[in-house]
Design brief:
This protein is an alpha/beta fold. The chain is about 30% helix and about 25% strand. The chain is built from 8 helices and 10 strands. The strands form 2 sheets. It has a 6-stranded mixed beta sheet, sandwiched between helices. Strand 7, helix 6 and strand 8 form a beta-alpha-beta unit. Helix 4 crosses helix 5 and helix 5 packs parallel to helix 6. The radius of gyration is 19 Å and the shape is globular. The N and C termini lie far apart (about 40 Å).
């Protein structure tokens, strides 16, 4: 098995990630059953299912938080060594997860949040604050689309709304060349106006050439932005649905029917 270079991920691939027959056990409890899932480059896939369906376990396995009990994982069509796969390795392979606003420093200015742990250094090895502010300003305006006078690189996270915080986290992931961005319920507990901001940010992920896995309980939100919907039930994939083939109302009925199978 050939190791993937962290600094220069290969660009000639069909799927950013592919899982083959992945299983996950917690003791005697089987949390994932024969998961076969592929995410294409520049594709947004919505992961749907009831609480306890296995969405979080699947994502944690895919991003290196949990090790599968069996199965194979491919990144950019090349198999990875599961014994050495971790969150850090996933980052090296350009896979980023955005957990609502938990990864942002409340009291820190935006430019510091953008470069936390990945600072730009000058030739003497010191943090180049001027360069970081310049790049952060470009991210705000180009990647995220913040053009109002109220938000600058010196604004603190505490000054931002929930939707704006999500935009910052998404913009940071895009800037650091994440080929796959995983969003874990990004619209949870947000007001309607803020939800619209986040959905627009999610659309920018695809527009700028990245792939996205979008985990969401609100079916209307994920239905709007996803190219494909993958349904999970009791740890296994039970459906793949194109949004144009099923309305939000029918999708809701379908998921309710799945729950009644139990």
């Amino acid at each position: 098995m050939t190791a993937l270079a962290a600094t220069e991920p290969p660009r000639d691939y069909t799927h950013i990630v592919r899982l083959e027959n992945v299983q996950k056990y917690f003791g005697a409890v089987q949390a994932l059953k024969n998961i076969n899932l592929s995410i294409g480059r520049n594709e947004t896939v919505g992961l749907i299912g009831d609480n306890g369906a296995g969405k979080s376990t699947l994502i944690k396995t895919l991003t290196g938080v949990l090790k599968p009990s069996s199965g194979r994982i491919f990144i950019r069509d090349r198999e990875i060594d599961l014994a050495n796969y971790s969150v850090g390795k996933a980052h090296d392979l350009a896979i980023e997860t955005v957990y609502q606003d938990k990864s942002l420093g409340e009291k820190q200015p935006l430019w510091r949040n953008f470069f936390a742990g990945r600072q730009i250094a000058n030739r003497w090895g010191f943090i180049d604050i001027k360069a970081e502010k310049r790049v952060a300003d470009e991210i705000l305006k180009k990647a995220i689309g913040f053009r109002g006078v109220g938000i600058t690189v010196d604004s603190t996270v505490a000054q931002l709304s929930g939707g704006e915080r999500q935009g910052i986290a998404i913009g940071r992931a895009m800037h650091f060349r994440a080929d796959l961005i995983v969003l874990d319920e990004p619209t949870a507990a947000l007001a309607v106006k803020e939800v619209r901001k986040v959905l627009d940010f999610v659309k920018r992920i695809k527009e700028q050439g990245h792939a996205c896995i979008y985990i969401e309980h609100n079916l209307a939100h994920v239905h709007e932005v996803a190219d494909r919907l993958v349904g999970l039930d009791r740890g296994e994939i039970v459906s793949e649905i194109r949004p144009q083939d099923m309305s939000v109302a029918d999708l809701t009925k379908y998921l309710i029917a799945l729950q009644h199978r139990r």
